[in-house]
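I hope you will forgive my troubling you with a question about protein structure. I should value your view on which stretches of the chain appear to form regular backbone elements. Here, with my thanks, is the record as I have it:
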Amino acid sequence: MNQKPKVSIIILNYNSEDYTIQALESMKDTDYDNYEIILIDNGSNENSRAKLKKSLGKFKKVIYKEISPNRGVGGGFKAGAQEASNPDYILFINNDIKITHNNWINSLIEVAKNNVGIVGCKLVYSDGTLQHAGGKINFLTPFFAMHIGIRDDPEKEVYNKVIDVDYVTGAAMLIKTEIIKQLNGFEDLFLPMYYEDTDFCIRAKKVGYPIRYTPNVKIIHFESSTTKKATSTYFTYVTTKNKILFLLLNMPLKYIPIRTIYE
């Protein structure tokens, strides 16, 4: 009997332990055996760490590691990947999510089998509207990274098909380990967060790996648990900085004159 592929799930915590505990609770009934959870505390304060560590006894398969200072999303996920014990796939998920059914890992792997590099799923907001069904890139528009179906009804037929997309987000993305090794993980320059997941998908596509969306896994995403405490000025600064960095790293040169005129 062939053993199922091994999956290492990586979750980051940064002063948002209640969300992290909720995410772990939602995974307790997962019906896939060959997985581990690597929980990285990414420079949280002592109170957050203490509360998190106190809760870990009730969860199986969790490997806990603390890093400090905070390394951002890219650095945190790299730290998690280094702790993984020879997996076939690495599954990055945000801590502010809730798994809605127990066969989610099986469903993601079924899509990944056919030489697919990265698989994302149907993400819905807590109010039940769609966050995205994958995303498309159009460098000629100001909002070049566009979530498919944002705030729409997630049960529409158009969102219930497995399709190839340009990117999925780090809220939930299953990645073949070979790609992470080939591309050296997420780009560290996108500090502290935003666009590192989109950039990784673009780089994976450039070396020939398809990015695929599946509606067969639905995850609730409460979104931005760690940024709700940030000021609007800081949020604007970070998103603008990383948007510019993403364009510098990924926009084809032929689009630069057109985009300059457009804006």
Notes: The domain at 7-262 is CATH 3.90.550.60 (Spore Coat Polysaccharide Biosynthesis Protein SpsA; Chain A). The chain has one domain: 7-262. Confidence is low (pLDDT under 50) at residues 257-263. The longest strand covers residues 211-221.
